[in-house]
Give the backbone structure.
Amino acid sequence: MMRRWPLLLTMLAASPAAAQPAVTSLAPEKVSVSVFRDPDRDEGGEISPDWLEGFALISETRTIDLPAGEATVRFEGVAEGMIAVSAIVTGLPGGVVQKNRDAALLSPASLLDGSLGNRVHIRRTSHATGRITEEEAIIRSGPAGAVVLQTAAGYESLRCTGIPETIVYGGVPPGLTAKPTLSVTTRSPAATRATVTLTYLSTGFDWASHYVARVREDGRTLDLFAWLTVANSNGESFADAGLAAIAGTLNQVSDFEELADRPRTPPLHLRCFPIGSGRYGVPLSPPPPPAPPSFAMEDGMENIVVTGSRMQRAEMMSPVAVVASQEDLGDLKLYRVPIPVTVAANAQKQVALLVKDRVPFRTIYRMRLDLGDEGKAMMPEMLLRMHNKQADGLGLPLPSGQAVAFERVGDRQLLVGEGAMRDHAVGEKVDLVIGESSQVRIDVENHVPPKNGRRDYRVTVTNANARAADVEIGFLIDDHDGLDSRIRKLPRRDGLLSWSVRVPANGSKTFDYSVKAADQAR
Amino acid sequence: MRALSRLCLPLIVAAAWIPAAAAAQDPTKGNAQGDLAVTIYNGGQSLVQDIRQIAFPAGRTRQEFPDVSAQIRPQTVSFAAANTAIVEQNFDYDLLSPNALMQKAVGETVTLLRTNPATGAETRERAKVLAVNGGVVLQIGPRIEILRDDGMPVRVIFDKIPPNLRAKPTLSITLDSDRAGTRPATLSYLTNGLGWAADYVSLYDEKAGTIDVQGWVTLTNNTGTTFDNARTLLVAGSPSGGGAASPRYRPRPQPPGNLRRAGTETAPREQLGDYYLYPLAERTTIANAQTKQVSFLDVSGVPAQKIYEFTVRSFDTMTEPASAASVIKFNTSAKGGGLGDALPAGTVRFYQRDLRGDPQFIGENQIGHTPMGSELGLATGQAFDVKVQATVVERERVSPRVTRSSMRYTLTNARAQPVTLDLLQRGLDWYWDETRIVAESHKSERLDSDGTRWRVELPANGEATITATFETRH
């Protein structure tokens, strides 16, 4: 069904009268991407590839041929999630006169709106003969309440007739673009080729760290390994990019999603006068669905490609060839992937973040009690305790992330626990909570009748394991009135008065204390 | 397919027809805007002045003003032209649509053009619209019929458009003119949907202890209208009588805000009342749905100092250490060591160079309208390496109305440089409780009735402990 247009309908008819030469920069030559975590994500929270709430700082180097005098440089091939107000353009010899982000988008509704009062063609096709007729018309109404046209015959409405008919436009009204576009106006002293750097923030990125702790057979050391997982939900790929990830918490006050949002394009609803016995309008085509949010899954999004082969540590594993290098960036930590990598569109990438073998650790069973808490066979938290010091086998910044622990049983590595870790600076104690124990149990009983407002408690820890258990019980105490000396003299751990005890294999330990009710304590 | 494409060949283009000429200020003609001046305030409100050359006839006329902002506040319109007197001012928003056209055609005669679905033959007849109530009832000669009740194709052709149906909401002014002739007419009005804020790019050099600040005004146009070639003036302020909220209850004191000390200097910029004015150097077109940025400030080498701050809000034990805020402090004074300008409200984004020399984003914060000579302290984020842990070592009642709390603060610095940390204890004056410090390991500075501050120099890769005993009277 090929047809050729008469020449009078060329696109030139209504093309905008360009006041100044426009230069379009299609793609960068060199790009670097620094990814920031979602500042609101919980410590150790995971990223969801279809809802990335972090962001990235993208820095692109582009070469542009500039004419002398005033010119507009349009940047294409930028990330969809670009936050235009954050854009910085450097390297223009004439400087930046103004930056514009134009977001009046070309759509059926804006085409109609922009053609108000213009001459268009109405094309009708006969159902019976297939004959196509065209006649000139002028659009007399805005897009809000469907179309009224002025034709040679008089005034008519579009799509109320039951005849297949449509408007054929002579051109695109000025100022409408396919995508929101960033452009800068510059004034060059002479025609020149310039290398400019475009730096901007963009939504649709996120990263996380995933720790894998493999307990060695000695049971006293572990191999700590962490993945750096970077995800990009933008439609743009960044080939051979310098990739960095930034750990730490930075302040965010503006709503990046809102700043980067594609403007909502109103769908064009064509409504008529009532037709037949009371039906308003002819729903010739179902109304277009509302514009999908920019984070919506697009075709092929399900196929998340995980590049970077999964490497194994400890005895049976291949060594890791590339590990991110770490540097300080002010009060943040910057992890740089030492080789150029491709940050693909709608994809997730993993590289090694850090590797530390033979880190000494202890397993601790920990419980926190309010004064007067009672309970039977309570399950304490199980945690792996390390010290983030060089002397203790670690001594490097540990950004927050998820953690899994494996232990070797026979010739297999089995999962023993999973937890989350906060940011740990060098020198801090690392308590990695990996679950609860059902082998070590804690009873707290008020074991004698109260006397003079004094209550006596007994804490009993039982150990069903064939190895000794290190147990810490911390008391969450606000007021120190009425405490007896047994609890007062306990040392502090994590700010809490704590009873630390080693419970022998298949054994138990008890701790007694008493509290005087507050009103009697005075 | 071949047969079909042959059928498509007869392509008829009725090109000879030319529509009737429209009125003088026809909305269907190009842009009717005249000499535009736009004054934009921060709150999304703007004043538009539009000077149009209008050919007034003598006597009473009605002038329409197309291409005013689609978000015009019609009650704010004022009009001025020599030798004219205003009779009335109208804002009509009865919009043209097929349904409105049919409703207004009740009692009128329209043309029906029927197409035979089998042969394609067209028949034409005149019909009178009797009623449009959930369906169009027509009278065709002696017959009464419902429009398109049989679903057959029918074109309805109206003879005219009623004068009050418009493509867009239209402002019109009826006036008496003493004499005929073309002369300038000034139309001014307020509109919503056009606002501005400032965006600052601030590059922090930690070694030199300086920041380079570039200020951009960001104006956004969501009015639905493009303002062509307008003289643009930005006003740093949003004139509206919102009124300051009176503190009815004692508000809980907040951690130190961004404006640490309000300045007392006047910036060398034009002022309107208490607001600074930022005129754009040249005329500009503010397109619909556009965000436009123009530079207004470029200062480099402003001395800036980084300090760490941590606020303990109550007397509680923390089981884990928490990060201190890293705060960049600078002043906006013109007298040595300052930025030397008043700053309109906006977002300040901080960047710092990494080891390769590339600028990296390190956090952002917001400022309000800041007079020149002010001191600003903007938190960029939480320090990874500088942490504080507070512990209640002892809390006892010394008498029924007096409680004594011994606090210990452990401050750690994992950075390779010494840092300055401001530790603030709040909650000293809460309703009827009053608290005094009985003993402390370092001398603190009482900031106000509710808070006290220790300024501690932490050595590189070192730590410090502060202890203090507070006595609270209930």
